[in-house]
Design goal:
about 180 residues; alpha/beta; 7-stranded mixed beta sheet
């Protein structure tokens, strides 16, 4: 394994313009293209593509195409989770989604960060911080989850919210940035 891939997997700053990472991305590109083109195919065919694309996929996971990701292999999705149209999961760091989650259309899970220093940003440095979503979470349409965020079990995030910080279990959060408005019973 090359230095940039090792650095990426360790959550360190790395340069993505790397032949090994490009090969991993080409694998993802082909699998996403096949998955998105086979939207009307039998569910077993789509499940087979997801099993090859993603790090792990629980039973009865449904993802409506189009679906896009960076690598796919860093994504783990628990059983019974539903992901609606237009999801973008940038998985340069691990993305873990629990069981029985509902993910609305056009949700973005973004583990990637770019350098704030202008020179280093021009050079292309980036890094990732993992995203963890608990069981039975509902992310409304258009929710954006930023790098390093954990969302607790049974939490609901309202449509269009931008989640910049961890959310505890069993709450309703809305807005930009997302803030807890109440506890759910």
């Amino acid at each position: 394994m090359g230095e940039n891939k090792q650095r990426m997997l360790a959550g360190d700053w790395y340069l993505p313009d790397d032949p090994e990472l490009a090969a991993d991305s080409e694998r993802r590109f082909a699998l996403c293209a096949a998955y998105n083109a086979n939207g009307g195919a039998a569910s077993a065919d789509r499940a087979g593509i997801l099993a090859e694309l993603l790090g792990s996929v629980g039973a009865d996971v449904r993802i409506r195409p189009p679906f896009q990701c960076d690598f796919g292999s860093h994504i783990r999705i628990g059983a019974g989770t539903f992901v609606n149209f237009g999801a973008v999961f940038l998985d340069i760091a691990p993305i873990t989604i629990g069981a029985d989650c509902q993910i609305g259309p056009n949700v973005q899970l973004l583990t990637a960060s770019h350098e704030l220093d202008a020179r280093r940003r021009r050079e292309g440095w980036e890094k990732g911080d993992p995203i963890t979503i608990g069981d039975n979470v509902w992310l409304g349409g258009g929710v954006i989850v930023c790098p390093g965020v954990t969302i607790g079990d049974d939490t609901v995030v309202g449509a269009g919210a931008v989640v910049t910080k961890d959310l505890p279990a069993g709450v309703l959060a809305v807005g930009n940035p997302a803030r807890v408005v109440r506890t759910l019973t």
